[in-house]
Each structure stands twice: as C-alpha cells, then as structure tokens.
Input
Amino acid sequence: MIRALLLALALCLAWPPAARAQAAVDPAPLTFENAAEETRFRSLILELRCVMCQNQSLADSNAQIAHDLRREVLALMRRGQSDAQIREHLVARYGEFVLYRPRVGPATWLLWFGPLVVLGAGGVVIWRIVAARRREPLPPIDDSQEW
Amino acid sequence: MSTSPTRRSHGRWLPLAVFAAIAVLLAAGVWLSRNPHRDALPSPLIGKPAPDFRLPVLHEPGRMVTAAELRGEPYLLNVWGSWCPGCREEHAVISEFAKTKRVRVIGYNWKDEHSDALRWLEQFGNPYWLVLVDYEGHAAIDWGIYGAPETFLVDGNGTIVWKYVGPMTPEVLRTQLLPQVERLEAP
Output
C-alpha cells in the first residue's frame, strides 16, 4: 500500500520529465502487417498482465514497461514464436505472475478449484436445509392472534 | 417436531461456523497484506545466470560491455534513472555501500536521457564503478526489470543470487544485502 502510494506520488512528481522521456523513447505506434497478425497480437496481450500496474493487462496499461513488453511480444511473434513460447519467454523473466490465466498446478489448485469447492459446499448446505424442512409438518395456522 | 435433536443442534451451529470461516478468511487476508512489499514480484531469475547483454557505458560512449566481461568477481547491479525519485532516495545507501568496495557497484541507467543521467550523477555524486546505459529498455526485459530502482547481486560465476525491488534502505542493506555479500566472500 505504502509502496503504491509512493509510486503514485512519484509518478505525479516525475510526470513532466517522465512524459518527455516517454515521448522521446517510444517508437512510432506498433504497426501490423495484416489483420490476422493484429488479431493474434491483441488476444495475446489481453491475457498477459502488466508487471507494473498489476491490475491491468498489457493491452490496457499505459505504463512504460507495458509499452516495452508489447513491443517485445510483437517482435517475438515476428520471429516466428508460438503463443505458448511467447508466454514462456515472459514467464522466464517475470514469473508466473504475468499470466492472467495461471497454469493448473499444485500452487494454483486452490485458485482454480477453490471457488468450485465453496459453491459445492454451499449447495450441499442448502440441499440439507430444504430436505429437513420438507420432512417437517407445516405448523398449524395460528388464528388466535388479534390485530 | 420430526427432526432429531442432534440434527437441530447441527443446524444451530451452522451460521456460527460460516461466520468463523469468513472471519478466518478475512484475518488471513489482513495477515498476508501486512507486508508493505507485497507488490514486489519474486524474480524467477534468482539462481540463474545473469542474462547475456551488450550495453554501452555512460561515460565512454562507444565502449560496449558484455555480461561475460563482468564475470569473475561479484557485482551489485543497481537500476536507476534520473526520472526516478526512489533512486534519489536510495542514492545515499548505495553510495555508502559502494565506499566499502566489497563488491563492484554497477549502475544500470534505464530509459534515461544521456545528458540527464550525467547531470544527475554530477549533482548527487557517482557511486558507481561503471554505469551501463539501456536507453531502449530491451536488455532490461531479459533481467525482468519492471521499474526503478531495482537491485541485483550477481556472484563471480555470473549467477544472480539476490534481487531487491524498490529503494534500498539502511535496513535492507544490513539485513538482506550484507549477509548475501558475506556468503559470497566466504571461502
């Protein structure tokens, strides 16, 4: 939290020079050779997470590192790498974290199946309550009450 | 009533059990979030060889340095930029450590302007044995760098042994970096 606040502050303080540096550093917007390449690129960056602003995908983020990583992804595509190879390339450098859809494994079982387990447990509880109620006779209607 | 007493008592405790489960879950969340450094990504590169790079030197444009040339002795690689307030903040800590000359301290000037970088070092002092320049930020991707400051410790074989994300403080220096350096120095 403190780091995030500091970062926000830092960005505010550093904005004018950073913006200048960014304008100078950023290459022309990425250009695509054809629609198929663009479609593949867009779907790929949608499921990769920006490492800096951790709640955004590479597609959404405007962070400097997201620019760099998008450029890297396109370069890898043009080098003939498959989607899986590109994901692996980024995971080797930044860790599993860059994947929005983490792989199924012992470390992520809870993440993948936890919600299903909770849902199942809730279902069992409701089913038991309903079954218990069905066995109970309806209470007699109480007419003795006066308004 | 047709329900047995045991069934009844089970039902009575159910809301409490659900409440307790949620309380435990929330407490775990609070417990896990107490670490102010939880945004820092663990680097998968620790224990792996430092990436191959070939980068120019800030003070000698034209001279290129490669990963292979730096091998043989350990070094501390400190990622910084003149645009980065956190780097200014940790500058004194890095300088203090550099004075001990226990390992070479190498600056990694990331996505900066050449003149800004030179001016920054003139103004605040240059603690670095060597400053590498990565203007494009391409080699930085191989290091898994995603912000500045970041600091890596690389051993004599060229293996990354430690990484710290964010401004180094005297405490980080004392409790994390120095023990790592001592381990490298041990015969």
Notes: DSSP finds five helices and no strands in chain A. The radius of gyration of chain A is 26 Å. Helices of chain A lie at 2-25, 35-46, 64-78, 83-94, 109-135. The mean pLDDT of chain A is 78.
